[in-house]
């Protein structure tokens, strides 16, 4: 069998070889770090996702080896496949940096200032995006959009004002559950996530929409307002579940499990989908086999105070002084009279001062 020919693509001056059909975004993720464009709607595990939010825009400065003309407009990297010899600029392009700031401004135009009370705060992709690519102020002077409240049932809370219409939850419900009940209704400024008629979302796997939502539009009612994520300690655990993988992250504060989520990879995507029962009903340590602490990116606020794999700094003094402790370097008795055998500090009334050492405060 002949080996598949690979395409060479250069992104931010780093060249990599990928299979034909790979998108620029996936190629950039192979390089990793800042070269990978942010993605608010693309989700590698969901078919048809991407192409909605425009946060992943990149500049194609050379189309391919055969046709080296640059692409005139910035392109969505999650929807554009690589060509052999293609050259792409992400963070090295001023046009991209400028356009991304514009996209963030647009995403935030109607967004409420809910971060202090929003359950997603601390693990919100929109917060990260705004911090890394956004502008400090807004030029928007009109009243922000509001929506009629939709009740999605006992487990999931919808805050439509925070939704960025990425469609991930719609694809999740469509592809993971066998009874899809919600979608994007209306168009343009009125577009909203809703059930077709006032209905609960009660499929076995519907809880996964909470994990795929990049913002705090869909949150877990069993965890709502109970704690801030950075106070919780994530721990990997599994159980023998007949419905799902049973591989989860438990979020502890003290001995109490505050919430159960699926495990997420470095791109914030769910590794294995989990069922509603594991997510909402198993909130006791005895329900799980604990594996150990979940590794969290050091850049995340959640990693604060969680010292996993900590390496203590080497004691240089001890190493160079053949194991002698630093405090033994200087014998204080040589330079101070404080502990002179003839002065008993316990007999001094009040704090000691230099005169005490000149007095005849001697032991008998
Ligand atoms: S969704 Fe994110 S940006 Fe919006 S209020 Fe919640 S934490 Fe803040
Ligand atoms: S509710 Fe969340 S996942 Fe669904 S479209 Fe809105 S932002 Fe995306
Ligand atoms: S991630 Fe590419 S358009 Fe949203």
TrEMBL record:
- Molecular function terms in GO for this entry? 2 iron, 2 sulfur cluster binding; 4 iron, 4 sulfur cluster binding; metal ion binding; oxidoreductase activity
Instruction: Name any cofactors this protein relies on.
Output: [4Fe-4S] cluster; [2Fe-2S] cluster
The subcellular localization recorded is: Membrane
Which residue ranges does the record assign to the 2Fe-2S ferredoxin-type domain?
A: 7-94
| Domain 4Fe-4S His(Cys)3-ligated-type, chain residue ranges per copy | 95-134
Name the keywords, alphabetized: 2Fe-2S, 4Fe-4S, Iron, Iron-sulfur, Membrane, Metal-binding, NAD, Translocase
Q: Which Pfam families match?
A: Fer2_4, Fer4_Nqo3, NADH-G_4Fe-4S_3
What is a single cellular component term in the Gene Ontology annotation?
membrane
Its family remark reads: Belongs to the complex I 75 kDa subunit family.
Name recorded for this polypeptide: 2Fe-2S iron-sulfur cluster binding domain-containing protein
């Amino acid at each position: 069998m002949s080996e598949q020919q690979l395409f060479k693509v250069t992104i931010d001056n780093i060249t990599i070889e990928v299979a034909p059909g790979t998108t620029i975004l996936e190629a950039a993720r192979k390089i990793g770090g800042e070269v990978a464009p942010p993605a608010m709607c693309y989700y590698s595990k969901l078919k048809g996702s991407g192409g909605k939010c425009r946060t992943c825009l990149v500049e194609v400065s050379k189309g391919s080896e055969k046709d080296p003309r640059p692409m005139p407009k910035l392109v969505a990297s999650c929807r554009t496949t690589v060509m052999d010899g293609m050259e792409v600029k992400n963070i090295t392009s001023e046009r991209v940096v400028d356009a991304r700031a514009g996209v963030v401004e647009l995403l935030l135009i109607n967004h409420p200032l809910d971060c202090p009370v929003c359950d997603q705060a601390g693990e919100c992709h929109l917060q990260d995006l705004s911090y890394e690519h956004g502008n400090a102020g807004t030029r928007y002077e009109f009243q922000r959009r509001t929506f009629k409240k939709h009740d999605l049932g006992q487990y999931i809370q919808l805050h439509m004002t925070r939704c960025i219409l990425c469609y991930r939850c719609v694809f999740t419900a469509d592809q993971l559950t066998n009874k899809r009940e919600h979608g994007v209704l209306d168009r343009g400024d009125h577009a909203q996530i809703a059930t077709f008629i006032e209905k609960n979302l009660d499929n076995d796997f519907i809880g996964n929409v909470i994990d795929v939502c990049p913002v705090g539009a869909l949150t877990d009612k069993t965890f709502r307002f109970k704690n801030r994520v950075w106070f919780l300690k994530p721990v990997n655990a599994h159980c023998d579940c007949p419905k799902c993988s049973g591989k989860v992250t438990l979020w502890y504060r003290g001995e109490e499990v505050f919430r159960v989520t699926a495990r997420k990879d470095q791109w914030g995507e769910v590794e294995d989908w989990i069922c509603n029962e594991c997510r909402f009903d198993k909130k006791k340590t005895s329900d799980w086999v604990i594996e150990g602490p979940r590794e969290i990116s050091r850049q995340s606020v959640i990693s604060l105070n969680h010292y996993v794999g900590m390496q203590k700094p080497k004691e240089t003094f001890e190493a160079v002084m053949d194991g002698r402790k630093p405090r033994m370097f200087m014998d204080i008795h040589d330079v101070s009279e404080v502990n002179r055998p003839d002065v008993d500090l316990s007999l001094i009334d009040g704090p000691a001062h230099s005169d005490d050492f000149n007095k005849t405060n001697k032991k008998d």
